[in-house]
């Protein structure tokens, strides 16, 4: 049956959706954005094509993110997006519906977890195997989660940050906070509105974060860039120059919340596992972890070495792929069950 059944691992994130295909690796990486006709409900575009419409649509079209804080905020739109993604991935006919391993937000309730599974099935999937994103991130990072050692992961995604300690194929301590990449963008928007009376959009804020966003404090000549937006006093287009140090002030609003949650998990971790973590360090994954200086900042604040994985953005999707590659074995051992 395996050769006739398409098998995918999906990291369904607030900011982006990444798909792993069994035997092929990462095959799709798209923004989790859907553009729809408001009146008819017709989906006009998904992914990158919809992302470029953010903040640029006429009254009859809306471009939105159907996931909020790592969970489904708009069930119908999410199902429509998954259906189109699965159709795009299955370019030729199969005898069986796709088998899917999908990551689920660490802080998701039972109802929210069920919504992810149901959306996949409504979109055309057959068997659906949910996996906690912390476990998927640990697998993707290559951590020895089947051993009695403490492995700690901090996954900073688009809409949420998930933090957990994994040992013997179980999550010993976990927490999540709805502060992550998109919240960094919103903090930049608030900062420029407050300090410069400048209104900018989500895409411009993200561009600022990528180009000069940093947790490093520059003593001399910090990187800077020109930012274009709308002057809130005159209503006219305006250009201002911002530098990395002032953007750092905005980003710290979000990063300090993440820092406190990391310390909270460390305080709740059993002593033996905490000793392992102190010796082995903490793994940092997710797109938000790419912010310059994030690993150094958290290392200094906790006194424990943070290590950025090789491909932090794809780490969770790679973890779902490792489940796919050994699905029968993991099912027999009871590590994963269909939803």
Describe this protein with a few key phrases.
single chain, 339 residues, alpha+beta, Nucleotidyltransferase, domain 5, Actin, Chain A, domain 4, 5-stranded mixed sheet, 11 helices
Write the layout of secondary structure elements.
Elements: E1 7-12, E2 16-21, E3 25-31, E4 34-37, E5 43-46, H1 48-51, E6 61-64, E7 67-68, E8 71-72, H2 75-89, E9 99-104, H3 110-122, E10 128-132, H4 133-140, E11 151-156, E12 161-167, E13 170-177, H5 181-196, E14 198-199, H6 202-212, E15 224-231, E16 237-243, H7 244-268, H8 271-280, E17 282-285, H9 294-302, E18 306-308, H10 315-325, H11 327-332
Parallel strand pairs: 1-9, 9-10, 11-17, 17-18
Antiparallel strand pairs: 1-2, 2-3, 4-5, 4-6, 7-8, 11-12, 12-13, 14-15, 15-16
Helix pairs in contact: 2-3, 4-10, 5-6, 5-7, 7-9
Structure description:
The protein has 339 residues and is an alpha+beta fold. The chain folds into 3 domains: 2-136 and 315-332, Nucleotidyltransferase, domain 5 (2-Layer Sandwich); 143-179 and 252-308, Nucleotidyltransferase, domain 5 (2-Layer Sandwich), CATH 3.30.420.40; 181-250, Actin, Chain A, domain 4, CATH 3.90.640. 38% of the residues lie in helices and 27% in strands. The chain is built from 11 helices and 18 strands. It has helices spanning 48-51, 75-89, 110-122, 133-140, 181-196, 202-212, 244-268, 271-280, 294-302, 315-325, 327-332; strands at 7-12, 16-21, 25-31, 34-37, 43-46, 61-64, 67-68, 71-72, 99-104, 128-132, 151-156, 161-167, 170-177, 198-199, 224-231, 237-243, 282-285, 306-308. It has a 5-stranded mixed beta sheet with strand order 3-2-1-9-10, with helices on both faces. A 5-stranded mixed beta sheet has the order 13-12-11-17-18, with helices on both faces. A 3-stranded antiparallel beta sheet has the order 5-4-6. β4 and β5 form a beta hairpin. α4 (133-140) crosses α10 and α5 packs across α6. The mean pLDDT is 93.
């Amino acid at each position: 049956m395996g050769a006739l059944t398409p098998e995918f691992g999906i990291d369904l994130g607030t900011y982006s959706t990444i798909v792993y295909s069994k035997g092929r690796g990462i095959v799709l990486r798209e923004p989790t954005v859907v553009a729809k006709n408001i009146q008819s409900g017709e989906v006009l575009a998904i992914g990158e094509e919809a992302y470029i419409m953010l903040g640029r649509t006429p009254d009859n079209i809306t471009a939105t993110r159907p996931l909020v804080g790592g969970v489904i905020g708009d069930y119908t739109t999410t199902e429509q997006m998954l259906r189109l993604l699965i159709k795009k991935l299955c370019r030729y006919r199969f005898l069986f519906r796709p088998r899917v391993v999908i990551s689920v937000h660490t802080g998701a309730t039972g109802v929210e977890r069920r919504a992810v599974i149901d959306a996949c099935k409504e979109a055309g999937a057959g068997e659906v195997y949910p996996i906690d994103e912390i476990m998927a991130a640990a697998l993707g990072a290559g951590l020895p989660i089947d051993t009695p050692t403490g492995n700690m992961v901090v996954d900073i995604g688009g809409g949420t940050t998930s933090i957990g300690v994994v040992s013997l194929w179980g999550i010993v301590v976990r927490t999540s906070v709805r502060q992550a990449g998109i919240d960094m963008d919103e903090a930049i928007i608030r900062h420029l509105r407050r300090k410069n009376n400048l209104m900018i959009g989500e895409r411009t804020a993200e561009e600022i974060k990528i180009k000069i966003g940093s947790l490093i404090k520059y003593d001399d000549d910090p990187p800077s860039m020109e930012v274009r937006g709308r002057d809130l006093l005159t209503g006219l287009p305006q250009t201002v120059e911002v530098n990395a140090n002032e953007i750092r002030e905005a980003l710290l609003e979000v990063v300090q919340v993440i820092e406190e949650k990391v310390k909270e998990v460390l305080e709740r971790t059993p002593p033996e596992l905490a000793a392992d973590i102190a010796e082995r360090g903490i793994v940092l994954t997710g797109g938000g972890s790419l912010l310059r200086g994030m690993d150094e900042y958290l290392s200094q604040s906790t006194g424990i070495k943070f290590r950025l994985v090789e491909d932090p953005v794809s780490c969770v999707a790679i973890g779902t792929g490792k489940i796919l590659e050994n699905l029968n074995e993991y099912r027999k051992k009871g590590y994963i069950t269909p939803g």
